[in-house]
Each structure stands twice: as C-alpha cells, then as structure tokens.
Design brief:
With 269 residues, the protein is mainly α. It contains eleven helices and no strands. The radius of gyration is 21 Å and the shape is globular. Keywords: Membrane, Transmembrane, Transmembrane helix.
C-alpha cells in the first residue's frame, strides 16, 4: 500500500515525516514537535514551502481553468501544468541533489515518481488541452499541500486546532481514494490522446511517449496503484468475457485485448 509522506528537506527521502495513515494519532498533542514561529518554520523548510506555493498555484490555475471568465481557459490549463512541472523539478532537486552524468544517477532519476510527473507535465505542455490531464496533478497537489499544511500547523503550535485535526483526518481517510482515481485517470488518458491525433491537436508520437510514462508508473516502487488499476480492469473484463450472456465474438476480442495489453506491461521487481 502506498503512503503519501510529507517531503523532507533531506535527500533520498531520509528522515521523512510519518505517513498520513499513521499521523492521526500524532495530532492530539504537540509531542515530538518543536514549536516554531511561522517565519522560523519557513526558514528551516524553505524548499518545502516553495513547493507548497507551487502546489497552491497548480490548484489555483486548475480551478480558474474550469471557471468562466474573460481570459482564455487554455492559458490557465498550461499554467497549471507549468506549476506542476516546477513542483516536480524542485522535488527532484530535493531527492537527488545535483545532476551527475552516470548510469546510476539515471536509474535513480527514472525510479523517482517526481521524474514521472515532470515528464507527464512536459508531454501535455506540447499537446492541445486535455481536461482529464489536470486531474492527476490537481489531486497530487491537493494531497501534498494538505499534508504539508498539517506539518506546518503542528510545528507552529497549532496541532490541536480544529482545522488541523479535520485536515489531518481528511488526509488519512481520502488519500487512498485519491490515488486510485489518479491511477484510473492515467490509464483513461490514452484513448483521449489518440482522439487528439485525429483532430490535429497532438502528433502521432504523443501516445507512444505517454505509453513510456505509463510504463514508469506501472513499475513504480513507491506507488502500486497503477498496477492495481490495470489488474482490477483485467479481472473485470475477464469476468465479462466469461459470462454466458457475452457473445463469443465479444469475448474473443476482450481476451485478445487483455493478452496484448498484458504483454505490453513492463516487468516489475
């Protein structure tokens, strides 16, 4: 089961904060937290606060994309993607540090979820607007921003406030649901990208590039939800094909499609 963890200021995920699934018990007291002023907290967690700001920008632009107004909505769409790309670039800097030209660094880079979504943001910056593409980055921004807000409140002496406790409980109860929705959105974007080719808003190579993103998500060591979503879809389709009411032609097509997609899945370790 994947855990959303609040980012640490250390590299390679050392000394990370507790996950949201375990954080609800910690919210009842200030034990384990050194009370800081807001300015002191910002100074000690400058990079984390910067990512918090870029996540709020992602949410702001995503909301304005859906609201009617005088400005072109696509402008907000691309700004949301730029903010998401900035967040993931900062997270990569935090996790990996400086860039080194080595095979080991490249392997570490590809294994990072932040690298996957930096790649994702760049892909959709080069195509026409796909509304569903905002769903994963918006939900991730919401989850991480909420978790960091809880940490900020706890470290500034507000751990027992009603807002902090409610936000903490919301994170603990909704994280898995949000990650499941994100995984399904990642998969269902593929047919949307194919449709963009026929209306001239995406190049022929975009679905193949996005397939590379999906393989990275499928192989992710920290987030198994994409694998689980594929598995659940396969089980549902096979259940339909085995049903006596399913026509033989449809059952045959379903089984062949499942076989082809299963063969395209990358190995997991």
């Amino acid at each position: 089961m994947v855990e959303i963890r609040e980012e640490s200021s250390t590299r390679n995920g050392e000394d990370e904060q507790p996950s949201t699934s375990a954080s609800s018990s910690a919210g009842s007291s200030n034990a384990g937290y050194t009370t800081l002023t807001l300015s002191e907290f910002v100074k000690t967690r400058t990079l984390d606060c910067t990512m918090f700001a870029t996540r709020l920008l992602t949410l702001f632009f995503a909301v304005w994309y859906f609201l009617p107004g005088p400005n072109e909505p696509d402008a907000y769409y691309y700004k949301a993607l730029v903010a998401a790309a900035a967040t993931n670039a900062l997270r990569l800097q935090q996790r990996l540090g400086g860039v080194t030209l080595s095979r080991e660094f490249l392997q570490r880079l590809i294994a990072e979820d932040s690298a996957h979504y930096l790649f994702y943001s760049v892909v959709f910056l080069t195509t026409g607007s796909v509304t569903m593409a905002l769903l994963p980055i918006t939900l991730y921004a919401s989850l991480h921003a909420a978790n960091f807000a809880v940490v900020a409140l706890q470290n500034t002496g507000r751990a027992n406030s009603t807002f902090c406790l409610k936000l903490q409980n919301l994170c603990a109860t909704q994280t898995q649901n949000c990650l499941g929705i994100i995984a399904c959105a990642e998969i269902f974007i593929i047919p949307l990208l194919i449709s963009l080719i026929f209306i001239g808003k995406a190049s022929l190579f975009v679905p193949f590039v996005y397939y590379r993103f999906l393989t990275m998500r499928y192989s992710s060591r920290r987030n198994p939800y994409t694998r689980q979503a594929f598995y659940q879809m396969r089980c549902s389709l096979q259940q339909i094909s085995y049903s006596p009411s399913c026509p033989a032609i449809a059952a045959n097509l379903i089984n062949k499609a499942v076989t082809v997609i299963s063969n395209l899945a990358p190995p997991t370790y």
